[in-house]
Amino acid sequence: MRITFKLFAQLTDFLPVEARHTNVIEIEVDPQATISQIIEPYGMPPKLVHLVLVNGTYVAPEQRPTQTLHDGDVLAIWPPIAGG
Asked: Confidence band (pLDDT; 50, 70, 90) for 81?
C-alpha cells in the first residue's frame, strides 16, 4: 500500500536528497508494518521523533510500535521544537 511520509525541520535531512526541498515522499509499505517499522529504516534518532501524526491525529509513543496505517494515510513527524 502507498502512504505519504512527511518530515519537518531538521528531520528532512533523513529523506532522500531529491525530496528534501518538499519534505514529502510517497512510499510503499507493507500493510502490516507498524509506525515504528516504517520510521526505523530512515535512521532518525528516537529522541528526534517527537510529534507523530497520522492524518492529523497525534499518535502517542506507546502506540507507535503497534499501530498500523491504511492505504492513502499521511504519516507526519516533527522533532522537538524550542522557541522563545
From this structure: confident
Query: What pairing do the DSSP bridges indicate for beta strands 74-78 and 51-54?
Result: antiparallel
Q: Looking at domain 2-78, which CATH architecture does it have?
A: Roll (3.10)
Does the structure show a pLDDT above 90 at 84? no
Domain-by-domain residue ranges, the chain?
A: 2-78
First to last CA, the chain: 41
10 Å Cβ neighbour count for 19? 15
Containing H/E element for 4? Answer: strand 2-7
DSSP H helices in 24-67? 35-39
